[in-house]
Amino acid sequence: MKVFVTGAAGFIGSHLCRALLSRGDRVVGLDNFDTFYPRSQKEANLNFAAEGGPLEFVEGDIRKAEILDHCLAAQGGITDAVIHLAALAGVQLSLAEPLRFQEVNLNGTAQVLEAMRRHGVRRLIFASSSSVYGDSPKIPFQEGDPVDHPISPYAATKKAGELLTHVYHHLFGFDVHCLRFFTVYGPRQRPDLAIRKFAELMTLGDPVPIYGDGSQSRDFTYIDDIVAGVLASLDNLASYRIYNLGRGQAASVLDLVKIMGRILGVKADLAYSPRKPGDVARTYADISLAAKELGYLPVVSLAEGLERFIAWFRSAAKQHP
Predict the structure, then answer these.
(1) 257, 263, 266, 269: CA torsion to nearest 10
(2) What is the pLDDT of residues 99-137, one digit of tens each?
(3) What are the counts of helices (DSSP H) followed by strands (DSSP E) for the chain?
(4) What would the pLDDT profile of 250-301 be if each residue is shown by its tens digit?
(5) CA distances for 7 relative to 33, 135, 236, angstroms
C-alpha cells in the first residue's frame, strides 16, 4: 500500500511512518518544519521513522497545491490512502494566533482534500482531537455527543475539519475516518506538552506549574496504542466514521505528577496558578466503538507508559546534555 502522511516529522507522524514502513507499506511523508519547536528535533524524528524502512520525504507546506500534487503523483504507484496529521497544535498558541490556526488547519485541510480529488485518491484518515468535546460535563465522551461548543480556536479548527471531510465523503465518495486523539504522550513527545515539560522541570528541581487546583484530568494515551489505532483504522477504512482513540481511563494532573515523581525519584515542587482560558477540565474517552469496529485495544497503562517515556527522556538527555 502507498500511503501519503502529512506532518510526517512530528511526534505522532514519525512513530506512524516507522510503523507503516516496518509492515511493508510505501510511505511518502510531508512536513514543513514549522518553527513551533526546533528543526533538529523533527530531523531526529525522521531518522527514527526511517529505521522502519526507506521513507520518501518531501519538505513543504500543505497549503501549496503543487507540493501536494508532487506527493500524490503516481511515482511508482498510485497513492492508496492519505493520513492527514499536519496541523498547528497547541490550545494556548491558538488563542494568541487564531487566524494562523484557521489558515493552516482549515485551508490546509481543504488543499489536501482538493489534491486528493484531483488525483483520484478517495481514502482519508483525518487527525482530529478530544478538544472538540469542549468542557462537556458528560463523561466518558462518546462520538455521538454534541460537539457544538469548542472553547479554543484549535478545537474549532478540528471540528471544522471533521465537517469539511464529511462534505467530501458526501459529494465525492471519499472514505473518511476522523480519529479523535486523547492526550498522546511517549518518546519524542513535543517539548511544549505537559509530560515532557514536567519531566524537565522535575529533573532540574524547578517548580512544576499547576493551572487550577490539579484535579483537572486527562485520558493520557501512549503513542504505541495510538499508532495501533491508526493502523487499524487504515485497514478498515470505509464510509465516514468518527472514532475516539484514547486509553479509556482518566487521571488527574496531580496523580500524573505523583507517578512521575516516583519514577524520577524526586518530590515535585508545585506552583499553583489560575486555570488557563481554553483549557478543558477533563477528557475521558469512551472507546467502545473503536473497540467494536476496529478491534482497538490500548494495552499500555499510564504507569508503564511514563516509565517508557522517562527512560527515553533520560537517554535523550545523555545524548544531548
Answers:
(1) -10
(2) 999 999 999 999 999 999 999 999 999 999 999 999 999
(3) 12, 13
(4) 999 999 999 999 999 999 999 999 999 999 999 999 999 999 999 999 999 9
(5) 9, 27, 22
The string of DSSP codes covering 303-319 is: HHHHHHHHHHHHHHHHH
Q: Measured over all CA atoms, what is the biggest interatomic distance in the chain, rounded to whole angstroms?
A: 56
Supply the angle between the helices 302-319 and 253-264 in degrees, to the nearest 10: 50
Q: Is 154 a catalytic residue?
A: yes
Confidence of residue 96 (pLDDT cuts 50, 70, 90): very high
Q: List the grid coordinates of 34.
A: 514549522
CATH architecture entry for 2-319: 3-Layer(aba) Sandwich (3.40)
pTM of the model: 0.96
Report strand pairing: 81-84 vs 123-129: parallel
The whole-angstrom separation of Cα 249 and Cα 135 is: 17
Q: Which of 133, 154, 168, 185 is catalytic?
A: 154
Strand-pair partners of 178: 126, 242
> What single-letter amino acid sits at 104?
V
What residue ranges do the domains of the chain occupy?
A: 2-319
Quick count: other Cβ atoms within 10 Å of Cβ 266?
14
